[in-house]
Amino acid sequence: MTNTAETQYPILDVLASRRSPRAYDGDATLTMDDLGPAFEAARWAPSANNLQPWSFIVGYRGDDVHAKISETLSGFNADWAPAAGALVVGITNTLTASGRQNAYARYDLGQAVAHFSVQAQANGLSVHQMGGFDIDALTVALGVNEPQEVVVVFSVGKAGDVAALPEPLKEREEAPRERKPLTEVVR
Amino acid sequence: MTNTAETQYPILDVLASRRSPRAYDGDATLTMDDLGPAFEAARWAPSANNLQPWSFIVGYRGDDVHAKISETLSGFNADWAPAAGALVVGITNTLTASGRQNAYARYDLGQAVAHFSVQAQANGLSVHQMGGFDIDALTVALGVNEPQEVVVVFSVGKAGDVAALPEPLKEREEAPRERKPLTEVVR
Questions:
Q1: Looking at this predicted complex, what is its ipTM?
Q2: By C-alpha distance, which of B14, B9, B25 is closest to B159?
Q3: Among B21, B43, B58, B60, which residue carries the largest CB count within 10 Å?
Q4: Do B9 and A40 touch (CB under 8 A)?
Q5: pLDDT for A66-115, tens place per residue?
Q6: Contact criterion met (CB below 8 Å) for B15 and B127
Q7: Chain-centre distance of CA A150, in angstroms?
Q8: What is the pLDDT of residue B4?
Q9: Tens digit of each residue's pLDDT (9 = 90 or more) over B71-94
């Protein structure tokens, strides 16, 4: 995969080459053995008071969970994401051990998914996180109940042929990756 | 550093060896050149609609910002964290471009700080994230205004001598790292 991040300071290749692709190999299948290292990485993420508020539901292409997730995807996501070997739902526990709102519930889930993505990238798998899905429908379909909350869906799979994507997606896929300048981010 | 994560599946060494230490070298100084790669890594984290809601304020030991952050730390944090060469405040923009609440503001800041931590670890720096600080006092002290929100403080520095920590901290530092079993995290 080209399109590596442009950096002023050198960063790990696994971070520089990580991106959120839309082209998946629709024939490649995955098992828990393929995803295990990435879930281990998520599991060992840090969290406030080590509460580890994250949990995950995995669907593999062809199974019921993958179909349920696919059905709730919005817009373009519904076109490209179902080709991924796995679709994963990221869930957070919104409460602390003493029953208060955990201000770091989403923050820590974000950290865990970031660790997942970095490890997946190292294992030759592409991750694309999505906020574009029907959160209420997915919550019901998967039977997620308070204080657990569905936050994110992400696709995981082997990279596919960008040229085979329909035009608006192909163009996005080939566009340079962009970020705000470092001087805007740090002071 | 020993005390590497116990994993059922192999993960990158930079993830397995990452931890949140409390023993810093109180003489080692840092500059932006030392933190640059970690901030680059944070900058290239993914975010919902590429909004990149994160920003950071850095204090270096001896400067005004480091002192302001140190003064707002709670409990044990006030004992060990000020020895770190840098204290960083993680801030998120709570609104989207169209002025709505960004449901992924904290989630994406978490991802950016996770990327920061991984890169820092690779560069021989230790990161310890904290929620234990006076958020209102720090918000005022640094002049952070809505829709920007202070979320987290983290220390960055060269590892120090664990044996020199006071007893309750020393014990925590040497305790094995623990996480929920993978079967509880993924289904």
A1: 0.97
A2: B25
A3: B43
A4: yes
A5: 999 999 999 999 999 999 999 999 999 999 999 999 999 999 999 999 99
A6: no
A7: 13
A8: 83
A9: 999 999 999 999 999 999 999 999
Q: What is the DSSP letter of A99?
A: S
pTM of full prediction above 0.95: yes
Residue A106 is predicted with a pLDDT of 98
Residue contact B180–A106, C-beta within 8 A:
no
Which residues fall within 8 angstroms of residue A136, CB to CB, at 6 or more apart?
Answer: none
Instruction: Report the percentage of chain A scoring pLDDT > 70.
Output: 98
Say yes or no: B55 contacts chain A, CB-CB below 8 A. yes
Token pair, residue B12, equals: 């990158």
Domains identified in chain A and CATH numbers: 41-172 (3.40.109.10)
Out of B57, B119, B179, name the one closest to residue A187 (CB): B57
CB contact under 8 A, A55 and B151: no
Residue A153, burial from CB neighbour count under 10 angstroms (0-12, 13-18, 19+): buried
Three-state SS string over chain B comes to CCCCCCCCCCCCHHHHCCCCCCCECCCCCCCHHHHHHHHHHHHCCCCHHHCCCEEEEEEECCCHHHHHHHHHECCCHHHHHHHCCEEEEEEEECECCCCCECCCHHHHHHHHHHHHHHHHHHCCCEEEEECCECHHHHHHHHCCCCCEEEEEEEEEECECCHHHCCHHHHHHHHCCCCCCCHHHHEC
Fill in the amino acid letter for B158.
Answer: K
Question: In chain A, positions 149-178, which contact chain B (CB-CB < 8 Å)?
Answer: 151-152, 177-178
The reply to whether residue B103 touches residue A182, judged by beta carbons under 8 angstroms, is no
